[in-house]
Design goal:
Number of helices: 15
Shape: globular
Oligomer: single chain
Structural class: alpha/beta
């Protein structure tokens, strides 16, 4: 498969460079193919001289450390306080004890990357509490591929336009924004996503022995991808997939732990309303979601899924920006048992609330504002509600409700 060799600057790069310059250790988590290794090698290691690199994707290196994790200590103790890069640390979690020894004894500082928190959390694994600074790398944010940040809500005040990439909104809805997809020749995007879905299923799930019933998990993946962006009914998923209810719960936990889905919890801080309390789940990338759901990866998909995908597009951007180091907000959704609903509630550190409805439309009807009206009526911390849409300029819809173009947020 042919890819362009262009390397794009990432929002995390300046912060990580500063941390490494101060000789602190880093744990960089993120789904596969979000660019962790590229970020480390291109922006963090390129100016370093005293570096040790270990890629645990290499079977030989992985086997050597599985059988003898103390080898890391022996090799590093002979060096002069090196920077040690260990790629995909979750593949040999027992190495973390050696890493802790080397950090505590000021023998080295580390960059650790991983695409699964699951193996790092189980069986009493050493999580290096207080010894590493943790960061999360998502697929490209809007500013990383060319959208000028307007910072309308003041969520990420330091964001700047970093790169310019020839990728449209429609292409991002269908193919997502994983770096290899964005930078690939267009004719290879569909093949990459289908391969990604298959390789993830085979490699991440079966080889890591997270589940034994790989066929049942495959059916679950397709159905859960189709329901991405909803508060799924686990009982109905169990009936349709032939997977037991306890297994459905476990499978969703696997997807969270392997960073494939993001959970959007309900906002439950209103004593005056009976509220819906189940979380929503969003696959971390629209292209991966579409491939796992076995949907057509072409423009025809937008005829039936534009609204769903546009909501994902906006929610995922907010998730990605909430994971940046200077983020000053958290995300929720809101729904009453009577049916009033708001797609996203942004809670800022100062306690203020920003409710958002997300509509893939250039015209907004007043009937679509009922959820915002209900939320504003019951939450004094929210002064204005917003409809994020495909309009070209902001519009005042009601005294305290404004429609915004998506690129303004």
């Amino acid at each position: 498969m042919s890819h362009k060799t262009k390397v794009l600057f990432r929002n995390l790069a300046p912060k990580l460079k500063k941390v490494i310059a101060d000789k602190h250790s880093i744990l960089l988590l993120g789904p596969r193919q979000t660019g962790k290794t590229t970020l480390v090698k291109e922006f963090l290691l390129s100016e370093q001289k005293n570096v040790f690199e270990y890629s645990l994707i290499d079977p030989g290196i992985r086997l050597a450390f599985e059988t003898d994790p103390q080898r890391l200590i022996r090799e590093i103790e002979e060096a002069d306080y090196p920077l040690v890069f260990i790629d995909e640390i979750q593949k040999v979690p027992q190495l973390l004890d050696a890493v802790q020894y080397l950090i505590d004894n000021k023998k080295a500082y580390f960059i650790l990357t991983g695409s699964s928190a699951r193996k790092l959390r189980r069986k009493g694994t050493n999580l290096l509490a207080g010894r590493v600074l943790s960061f999360y790398l998502a697929p490209f944010t809007w500013n990383e591929i060319g959208v000028e940040p307007k910072n309308y809500f003041g969520l990420n005040p330091t964001l700047e336009k970093l790169n310019k990439v020839d990728v449209s909104l429609e292409e991002q809805l269908v193919f997502g924004s994983l770096p290899p997809v964005v930078l690939a020749e267009k004719k290879y995007r569909e093949l990459f996503l289908k391969t990604y879905a298959q390789v993830y299923l085979e490699e991440e799930i079966r080889q890591e022995a997270l589940v034994r019933k790989i066929g049942a998990f495959g059916r679950f993946l397709e159905l859960s991808a189709l329901e991405s962006g909803t508060a799924p009914n686990f009982s109905r998923l169990s009936q349709h997939s032939g997977v037991s209810l306890p297994a459905i719960r476990e499978f969703f936990q696997i997807l969270e732990d392997t960073l494939i889905v993001r959970r959007l919890d309900p906002y439950l801080k209103s004593p005056r309303k009976r509220l819906f309390s189940r979380p929503k789940y969003y696959y971390f990338d629209t292209g991966v979601r579409n491939a796992l759901a076995k949907l057509p990866l072409n423009a025809d998909l937008l005829k039936t899924q534009r609204g769903i995908l546009f909501e994902h597009f906006v929610i995922l951007e907010l998730f990605r920006r909430s994971s940046l180091p200077e983020a000053n907000f958290r995300l929720y959704w809101w729904r009453t048992l009577e049916g009033a609903e708001v797609d996203c509630v942004i809670e800022k550190d100062d306690g203020s609330l920003i409710p958002l409805e997300i509509k893939a439309s250039t015209s907004i009807s007043f009937g679509q504002l009922k959820g915002l009206v209900s939320f504003l009526r019951t939450h004094s911390q929210a002064k204005t509600g917003y409809v994020v849409s495909l309009i070209e300029r902001p519009q005042k819809l009601k005294e305290n409700i404004i429609a915004l173009p998506w690129w303004l947020i």
